[in-house]
User: Fold DnaJ homolog subfamily C member 11 isoform X1 from Salmo salar.
Amino acid sequence: MLYHPDKHRDPELKRQAEQLFNLVHQAYEVLSDPQLRAIYDIYGKRGLDVEGWEVVERKRTPVEIREEFERLQREREERRLQQRTNPKGMISVGVDATDLFDRYEEDYKDLPGGGFPHVEINKMHISQSIEAPLTTTDTAVLSGSLSTHNGNGGGNINLALRRVTSAKGWGEVEFGAGDSHGPLLGMKIFRNLTARCFVTAQCGLQFSSRGVRPGCTTVLARHLDKNTMGYLQWRWGTQSSMNTSIVRDTKTSHFTFAMQLGIPHSFMMMSYQYKFQDDEQTKVKGSIKSGFFGTVVEYGAERKISRHSVLGATVSVGVPQGVSLKIKLNRASQTYFFPIHLTDQLLPSAVFYATVGPLIFYLAIQRLIIRPYVRAQQEQDLEKHRESSASDIARKKQEAESAVLLMQESVRRIIETEESRMGLIILNAWYGKFVTDNSRRHERAKVIDVSVPLQCLVKDSKLILTEATKTGLPGFYDPCVGEEKSLKVLYQFRGVMHQVLSPDGEALRIPKQSHRIDADT
Assistant:
């Protein structure tokens, strides 16, 4: 009724009313159609933009519409299938730094520059894989790796063809070749036995100058409860073993217990990881592993340092391995791993420096590099978002200004009615970013006056706003894209002044006694 063109005689107001009335009409067409409304309720406007709804049978339930939407989404993904490769890679650089703690001074007396410890890279490993979707059920995976250790190295290349046979399983055939192991022929099968149990079986034939070496691995897994998995593994071949493990993963922790009997390694292992519920997704972990090879204790932490990067450090102390520091950086689908061997002995000094050194280094990097970089990146992303949405915001602003002009007459009548009953009068209302922190006084407040739109929403001396962003209300628009916003209202009820500051997205109901401004303050 407010935007109906026939209610406005002024030509300019009539033109603005027609534009807003068309938007209301479009919304009415969606909300009055049971099928379109179900789509909008589930997926919003993006659901209405998906092609293919015109061929969908009408009178479907919301569940059927959801299934149909997911089918249309899958078809759209299939059209993009050929463009995806899902690359994954890992670079590992092993560092021998034992000379820092295990050096013998007499060995360096007669050597030039013998006063400096000798640190060297003694091994490296590089691996990379890409996926090439062939059809909706077939995928080719090409992978390769190169390794070197103390001057000797080798490499291999593998091609795997994977087919999804049904919703319950898939199969894979693998071909490989390398300069040290010879050709490889393998097969892998995955199958869901029940809703809570699955099995994987893998077998292979490794051809070499010594003959053919067969191998087989079978894993049976079962959901013990909502967060717990149990695994049984049997491996036959060059390193035969039987392994059982229990893994419990919750929102705040991750626990693993495993036992293995095999040739040449038998061991028992237990690890625990605690997950902090912070923005950086900080995790601390510890583990102990003991077997025929000795005993190893590990502890460490990892933390998200940017949107796509996770940095972690682990200290490993064991007999007879000694002390090592392992640093890992995950950047998107790439992993960079740096194991640093510090000493072959159990030296308290090595354990201390392996623990404190990375912590001090991380705090320095965090303050000097990571935080400034992340802050600059956020500002850059925000600026890009503002630029990309500038035209849309300008259109929303124009629509809001037109709506405010069209509300004037209705607001005048509402105010007269409220004044006659000593009801709710909106004196001033602002929406946007408010600067209340003294440390941010240099920032400029970005607010718009929404007194008229709020007064227009007053009914029977009440104003009720639901739990949603206010940018979609008539007469509102977003004055500061990507920043936190609030709604500040100064109003009068029963002749008494009230004031409230409500965060955007929260429900608001006025008048309320708690908003009252005392006369002596």
About this structure: Residues 348-388 form the longest helix (41 residues).
